[in-house]
Amino acid sequence: MTSEFDAISRLFKKRTPYIHPLTQVGNGDDASVHQVPKDKELVISTDAAVSGVHWPEDMPLDIAGHRAVCAALSDLAAMGAKATWVWIAVMAKDSPSLVKMSTGIVQACHNHQIELAGGDTVSSATNAITVTVAGLVPKSTAMTRGNACPDDEIWLLGNLGLSAMGLEQWFAGKHEGDFVSSFQRITPQLEAGEQLRELGVRCCMDVSDGLLQDANHIAKASNVSLNFVIEKLQSAPSFKKLAHINKDKALKLTLSGGEDYALLFTAPASLHQSLKKLGALNIGDCSEGNSARLFLQGSEIEYNVKGYDHFD
Amino acid sequence: MTSEFDAISRLFKKRTPYIHPLTQVGNGDDASVHQVPKDKELVISTDAAVSGVHWPEDMPLDIAGHRAVCAALSDLAAMGAKATWVWIAVMAKDSPSLVKMSTGIVQACHNHQIELAGGDTVSSATNAITVTVAGLVPKSTAMTRGNACPDDEIWLLGNLGLSAMGLEQWFAGKHEGDFVSSFQRITPQLEAGEQLRELGVRCCMDVSDGLLQDANHIAKASNVSLNFVIEKLQSAPSFKKLAHINKDKALKLTLSGGEDYALLFTAPASLHQSLKKLGALNIGDCSEGNSARLFLQGSEIEYNVKGYDHFD
Fold first, then answer.
1. Mean pLDDT of A165-181
2. How many other CB atoms sit within 10 Å of the CB of residue A43?
3. What confidence score (pLDDT) does residue B1 get?
């Protein structure tokens, strides 16, 4: 199979002709070589996606390939970086799997005008894709999890819960369900991430595991509490879509559904109007503390991942 | 299993405390952030290693983890880069597998003083590791496959065939065989790579798939022929070690055995003495053409991967 894989690997390269102007040595050598402008910093992240874990085994593999790249790019969006390069390792059960995964990967690179700067294609008993993405930010401006302040407001840009609902529909055999595309088609918010950084936002992350779980990462890294207001979360368009099905479930999915890749960020009140104009939704406020907290009608309520059906 | 994986992942981070001075945001955020000095270029490569494909399924997983990192670092050695950062995706069947793989990974980072700048730990039906490595080179000095000249001499630094022999011993059940450590313990020639670059070597690669197969990559990229002299290859210490077993086999493994990660490079004759002093072995000369060729007693001989037993 090796030579067949090699052939596809070459095809891969031909289908990703874009080369970034800062690239000195592109795909095809032992490593790629890149310049980094002196006023910029390099931002890098690696993500793995595995068949049967990160996507259902019966989902088309081009969709899996596309998702894997876009999920990784979302990390660059969360840092406010301009996405520039990607390196991919494709682990494939057979040649048809490799071809399908590569098709989605190539599409994602093309859609976001990212250079495929290198990679590895190998055989494996389990289809899997790992994606390393790199981008650039002006020096000392990357948005991190550790920069929230107790006086900040909390904001959301993007959907919550739709992807989890889509996955549920897929597993229930409703492959044409209304929400399935929300799971299958990830849109990394790269432009929005850059806009937030330019506005002066300093603390941001993408919601991949669920709002409250991820918010705890900011709380711990910044040593602040993030106080979410359920009434505000209920005004999110994604909540309203989900509420058509079931209001309890809508809240559950909003608080804990993963993989919508919304941007969760905090900012001083001085940015309130600018952020509203960008389409962001204010969903709470920070305070002294170090945890994610939930408020309904002005009172704090206990949040339990497995037991929040009593909320409305 | 997720929370258990998370716990190990945190452990992972604690066991790799080294942070490179150019790192602005280290392991634990959505992405890591790094400065690149203005006189340097960034060199990056990604490699995948899969259980049952890149290492025998019955080999200890800490060895697999160590190998995966060192194989990736070898790509930086081949470019003449100073290894600086690594990002790892570990796909593990279960927690004990994850712990074992991470132990080897951590050791490799520690041994080579590389910062583990980020990663992902996920569950998978197949144990696998992908490693992205990054290093720095002075501007426009990276050694590539495309820089060989027709007048260059061909050089080798490192062993050929020992790793393939070790793997054969392992599969034969000789887990304590003399050559097994050559397969299990990869030494990326990072210092040597930097020395070659400093000397002015411009064309280099690491031998991962076998000498002649890899030499063809240089031949195609540089549009030169690489003419190997069997008598010179037979003077290599690794050939002599293998010849104790069988001379025919020694040659076969020297020409096509993979994963010793020797550096194969070309250089003008003016560097001959300096390269000898470094311990490199001159194994042939380049010429006009675009293929890897083999010479015995002054005459070219046909090389056939599956049928070279008639050579001596």
1. 97
2. 29
3. 44
Q: Which CATH number fits domain B153-301: 3.90.650.10, 3.10.580.10, 3.60.20.30, 3.50.50.60?
A: 3.90.650.10
Pick the CATH number of A2-138 from 3.30.1330.10, 3.40.50.970, 2.60.40.10, 3.40.50.1820: 3.30.1330.10
List Cβ neighbours of B103 (8 Å cut-off, separation of 6 or more): B62, B65
* Residue B130: per-residue pLDDT: 98
Q: Residue B15: its pLDDT value, please? A: 85
SS3 letters across A104-119: HHHHHHHHCCCEEEEE
Compute the count of residue pairs across chains A and B with CB atoms less than 8 Å apart: 198
Residue A289 CB-density burial (10 A; 0-12 exposed, 13-18 middle, 19+ buried): middle
The complex scores an ipTM of: 0.94
Paired strand residues for B91: B122, B128
Q: Which of residues 254-293 of A touch B (CB under 8 A)?
A: none
| pLDDT average, residue stretch A136-164 | 98
How much is the pLDDT for B312? 35
Q: To the nearest 5 percent, what fractions of chain B are helix, strand and coil? A: 35, 30, 35
Dihedral over alpha carbons B242, B243, B246, B249 (to 10 degrees): 60
Q: Which residues of chain B have pLDDT under 70?
A: 1-5, 7-9, 305-312
- Strands A40-50 and B32-34 turn out to be antiparallel
Question: Do A258 and A164 contact (CB within 8 A), yes or no?
Answer: yes
Residue A45 has pLDDT above 70, yes or no: yes
Tokens 């490192």 belong to residue: B158
State how far the alpha carbon of B174 is from the alpha carbons of A110, A234, B166, B170, B243, in Å.
49, 65, 9, 5, 19
State the residue for tokens 């010179």: B232
Provide the chain B residues 103-132 that lie in CB contact (below 8 A) with chain A.
117-120, 122-126, 128, 130, 132
pLDDT at B307: 35
